[in-house]
TrEMBL record:
GO biological process, any: substituted mannan metabolic process
Name recorded for this polypeptide: DNRLRE domain-containing protein
Pfam families recorded: CBM96, Glyco_hydro_26, Por_Secre_tail
Record domain GH26: where: 17-304
């Protein structure tokens, strides 16, 4: 009886410990910092680690951060390819997943900070920033991560200078990068701080946590306490139960996870964590770190899911129609030719698949894999993954083929009865003397196969002779079985939205060639009119169902026959109007146009009904959002031209509440490329206050400011909070010059309000 009591008490204590209360989070208003929440992330470069992790946790615990890595010595082309590779992967996931990029400037244990400082790697770093900036979503970059780790061999002096140098490059070329300073608790606080670049260069602090002794180390707690003094949120940049793993179930949970989550719970400065969901047993360098994939042990997996169900964690909001499936094979086996052609190798050698091209009969091997895809439809992305082990001194290229016959079984498959192969899907390369994941995009093939319940692949080496590649099979115990990762939707999501002109220079008229930016109305039929709508949150490639511009009549009794033509500006991100000659007509227009014929009478000023509404202009909007460079949140310009009949519509200057309004409805499948995420999506602290009006925004040289009651001192700060200039306003309306400031992002602060603005020349 006593034995049972002890067991019950032990389980109860563990359960209570797992449900300990979280302290309320500190908020520092740092870049992309969530309010009162903890961002949840995973990864470590390998997409399958993230996808299988996300699939296991489910849509209500979908990770917000995906981790990957790059180095500072990549050239511009290499850096662009590296960024696009992973950004394309992120775009297949629900909108809101953010990258956390580890950027190293060490090579084989030797730092090259001096190369960075000499400008040798500027081209690649600038390209990295530009690609990320064009992508538009929030990005975290851990510059020179684990700065104090002896394995990186950074000197504190050159490290700090390189961090500052890279930060300046990023801030000059991108507005969506948060810089992260990362250390390891292997040294004491004094040593860690000797690597600190300074508050003005750092948005977030970060610490990496692995072996259990570092969870209890005073170095860890000292670092977290110091972050509070610097008013910096902390991200656990990398973490997993190294040297503990998950195989021990409850013991693994007690020996690492309990302490890990208690650190998060008891330190309100921690605002993000990233978990490495990896099988280290297959790592050539760190096999002693064991298998840390949470889903590989049911006890650990269940407790982990429960912990992340706490409302303090911020997960991505997943559309109801979105689905990710990381599927392991139902059947896999290899076959062998020659005298072995009748052998069934799934029973003889079940833990691996083999691929080999041989000139000698009996030594060629081919592998076959089948996945159950029943219940999956509307595939938006599919990728085949397998883990190859190449002991050869040269790379091995294997070809993946379609297999239309899915009736084969691993229990009976041999070379004589193997199914015929169809089209080649592409090559997968496994590096020489390496063990690594290989993958291939198979979207079209899988999408066309969903009418059935299975999809099969053949992996064959048609290249160099006598090279053997081993692939982990589904039966592998400590290895990495193949996966088919499928992103799909149960249909499309219909979204409606509207955007109203919000700046004086965003609705304008052009006479013969002269521009008028401040008229109180747009005179259709007499002048060419241009209307710019900002922050149009339609994803790239969305299907526009309907769109129109709603105007408000400015005059009474306009009932003459009237017909106009509407076009759009054919650019990715339209700029505001200026006083330059022909600033509307000089703009390149879309090939799509809409005739607005027989415009009904506008009888009374202030009318804003169907008579003051354009026809459906979805074809124009569709052409713009289909552009390769369009991203959600960009700006678009529409133009109304014609000389037949007059109608006058209110402008922003005439009455901001009656300015032109773009109304639209679109459908977007899950996984559609929606590249820009508003900060409110991740609950960051907003800088926008409605009582303060600044326009135009972006700014060129001057802007007009309408101040709230009681405000007369104006302060302009940079994004780091440094005061650049202070101005005394004589009235509630002021015109401010910024000709002395460089292009970039700034903050304007008054007594009780503030707003972010952009200088763009």
């Amino acid at each position: 009886m006593k034995r049972y009591v002890v067991i019950i008490l032990t389980i109860f204590c563990c359960y209570q410990q797992g449900l300990a209360q979280y302290q309320a989070r500190l908020n520092f208003n740092a870049k992309f910092e969530p309010t009162n929440k903890i961002l949840h992330g995973a990864g470590q470069s390998n997409e399958i680690e993230f996808s299988s992790y996300a699939d296991f946790l489910g849509n209500n615990r979908y990770p917000t951060i995906f981790m990957f890595y790059t180095t500072a010595n990549r050239n511009a082309t290499e850096q662009e390819d590296r960024m696009n590779e992973y950004l394309d992967f992120i775009d297949k996931h629900p909108d809101g997943v953010m990258p956390q990029i580890g950027l190293a400037f060490t090579r084989n244990g030797v730092e090259y900070a001096n190369e960075v400082l000499s400008g040798q790697h500027d081209a690649g770093l600038i390209k990295m920033a530009q690609v990320l900036n064009n992508w538009g979503k929030p990005v975290f970059v851990r510059i020179g991560y684990e700065a104090n780790g002896f394995w990186n061999a950074y000197s504190s002096s050159s490290y700090k200078q390189a961090f500052q140098y890279i930060t300046n490059i990023f801030r000059s070329n991108a507005s969506n990068i948060a810089t992260v300073w990362c250390v390891h608790p292997i040294t004491n606080l004094n040593n860690m701080m000797s690597y600190y670049p300074g508050d003005s260069y750092v948005d977030w602090w970060s610490i990496d946590l692995f072996e259990p002794n570092f969870l209890s180390s005073p170095n860890t707690q000292d670092y977290l306490d110091e972050a509070v003094l610097h008013s910096k949120p902390v991200m656990i940049g990398e973490s997993c139960p190294s040297e503990v793993g998950v195989d021990g179930g409850q013991q693994s949970w007690n020996n690492w996870y309990v302490s890990y989550f208690n650190i998060i719970k008891n330190n309100p400065v921690i605002k993000a964590f990233c978990y490495i969901n990896r099988n280290w047993k297959t790592s050539s360098s760190l096999p002693q770190w064991l298998d840390c994939r949470v889903y590989k042990n049911s006890t650990v997996g269940s407790l982990y899911q429960n912990e992340l169900s706490n409302s303090i964690y911020q997960h991505v909001s997943v559309p109801s129609n979105y689905k990710i499936d990381a599927i392991q094979p139902g059947d896999d086996a290899y076959v062998r030719d020659g005298t072995y052609s009748s052998n069934t190798y799934d029973s003889q050698d079940p833990l691996r698949l083999r691929v080999k091209n041989s000139a000698v009969s009996g030594f060629t091997r081919e592998s076959y894999i089948s996945f159950d895809i029943s219940g999956i439809s509307n595939v938006t992305s599919a990728r085949l993954w397998f883990f190859g082990r190449n002991d050869n001194t040269v790379d091995i290229n294997t070809t993946v083929f379609e297999v239309s016959n899915n009736s084969w079984s691993e229990n009976t498959l041999n070379y004589n009865n193997k199914p015929n192969t169809g089209n080649s899907l592409g090559l997968v390369e496994i590096s020489d003397e390496d063990e690594e994941w290989g993958s291939l995009d198979v979207t079209t093939y899988v999408a066309n196969a969903t009418s059935g319940s299975k999809v099969s692949f053949a992996i064959i080496n048609q290249g160099a002779l006598e090279l053997t590649l081993d692939i982990d099979s589904r039966e592998t115990i400590d290895g990495n079985p193949p996966f088919l990762v499928i992103h799909s939707s149960s249909g499309s999501t219909t979204v409606s939205g509207q955007v109203t002109v919000s700046n004086s220079s965003d609705d304008a008229e052009q006479g013969s060639s002269t521009m008028d930016l401040t008229s109180g109305d747009l005179d259709f039929g007499e002048k060419l009119s241009g209307i710019r709508f900002t922050n149009v949150t339609i994803p790239n490639g969305a299907i526009i169902q309907n769109a129109y511009i709603q105007f408000t009549a400015d005059n009474d009794g306009q009932n003459s026959n009237a017909s106009y033509t509407i076009k759009g500006q054919d650019v990715n991100n339209a700029g505001t109007f200026t006083t330059a000659t022909n600033n509307i007509s000089n703009r390149t227009t879309t090939s799509a146009s809409v005739s607005w014929n027989n415009v009904p009478a506008w009888n009374s000023a202030g009318q804003a009904g169907t008579n003051q509404r354009t026809p459906d202009i979805s074809s124009i909007i569709q052409e713009i959002v289909n552009r390769g460079g369009w991203i959600s949140g960009n700006n678009m310009v529409l133009m109304v031209d014609g000389t037949s009949g007059k109608r006058s519509a209110k402008t922003y200057d005439g009455d901001p509440s009656k300015a032109p309004k773009l109304v639209y409805t679109y459908t977007s499948s899950a996984g559609a490329r929606a590249l820009k995420t508003e900060q409110t999506t991740i609950e960051v602290n907003s800088l926008e206050y409605s009582e303060l009006k600044l326009y135009p925004n972006p700014v060129s040289d001057y802007f007009k400011l309408e101040l709230p009651e009681g405000s007369n001192e104006i302060t302009i700060l940079d994004v780091n909070g440094r005061v650049l200039k202070t101005i005394k306003a004589e009235s509630r309306s002021a015109v401010i010059s910024v000709t002395d400031l460089e292009p970039g992002i700034y903050i304007l602060n008054t007594n009780n309000s503030r707003v972010r603005f952009i200088i763009d020349r």
